[in-house]
Specification:
single chain, 3-stranded antiparallel β-sheet, 43% helix, alpha+beta, 69 residues, 3 strands, globular
Length: 69
């Protein structure tokens, strides 16, 4: 798979979570990529999701989303 195709998949996963009400609450970066932690609060329930982001373009993408939050 090309790096661009991988970026598109990662972007789509990020967009899906954001469109469903998740907010970025934490980012952990290391040599194997970035782990982006999302949280969705509904009344008394809290749902968490974590994405492992590998491409540089997807890192830039979630950075813009984080600044817009």
């Amino acid at each position: 798979m090309s790096e661009y195709q991988q970026f598109l998949q990662e972007r789509d996963r990020i967009d899906y979570l954001v469109e469903n009400g998740y907010k970025i609450i934490n980012i952990t970066e290391n040599l194997s990529g970035a782990f982006v932690h999302f949280e969705k609060r509904m009344d008394s329930n809290v749902e968490n999701e974590t994405l492992h982001i590998l491409t540089a373009d997807a890192r830039k993408y979630f950075s813009v989303i984080l600044m817009n939050q």
